[in-house]
Amino acid sequence: MQHRLINYTWLNPPRRFMLKENEISFTTHPKTDYWQRTYYGFQNDNGHFFAFPTIVKTFTYALQVRYAPKGIYDQAGVMAYLDSENWVKASIEYENETISRLGSVVTNSGFSDWATTDIDTQPEFKIFFRLSRRGKDFLVENASDGIHYHQMRIFHLDQAESTLKLGVYACSPSESSFEVTFSNFEFGDCLWEPYDDME
Predict the structure, then answer these.
(1) Maximum distance among all alpha carbons in the chain?
(2) Contact at 8 Å (CB) between 123 and 68?
(3) What does each C-alpha distance from 51 to 20, 48, 68, 69, 157 come to in angstroms?
(4) What does the pLDDT look like over 3-16, one tens digit per residue?
(5) For residue 56, what is the enclosing H or E element?
(6) N or C terminus of the chain with fewer C-beta within 10 Å?
């Protein structure tokens, strides 16, 4: 079901953005990121995040993202956020002219993990993400065409009991800056079927 961008607010707004009924474009600031502690030790919570609050416990949220990376670690995708220490993001992250990383970061109780697969770098990334929820359990998927989705990850958010902020994010952890466009938003009934134990 098509989803209008109403009741959305910013966490760490960019200096400029353009909002339409089912599309938003903006430019990232340098030195912005989301990460908590694990391995690297640092804590970053200053990426651009445009989201709406929801208490719905079963849903599917989908969107398309398009961006041309300018520098290492440039990234953009879907995000669900409880607070600075409990969230998930899924995106393509630019590495170099040859390889980039399609992946997700799940953060529980202030510690992030990062699961990725290498993909070919493109002059412009175009990808659909779909995030489904059943209680505290989530499924994140991706598709090149918005139709044929592929599972990326099933995960659990320990603290997902109250209002969840759901939306899109982009950031430039290095000194770069890039323009990103999110479109084709959908939000509705959960397309992730409940598990049926066949035994």
Answers:
(1) 55
(2) yes
(3) 15, 10, 22, 22, 18
(4) 889 999 999 999 99
(5) none
(6) C
Return averaged pLDDT per consecutive 10 residues of the chain, 199 residues in all: 91 96 96 92 93 97 98 97 97 97 97 96 97 97 97 97 94 97 97 80
Side chain identity at 51, as an amino acid letter? A
Parse the chain into domains and list their residue ranges. Answer: 9-188
- pTM comes to 0.95
Q: How do beta strands 43-45 and 23-27 pair?
A: unpaired
> Which amino acid appears at position 56 of this protein?
V
189: left (phi over 0), alpha (psi -120 to 50) or beta: beta
**Would you give the DSSP letter of residue 32?**
-
CATH code, 9-188: 2.60.120.200
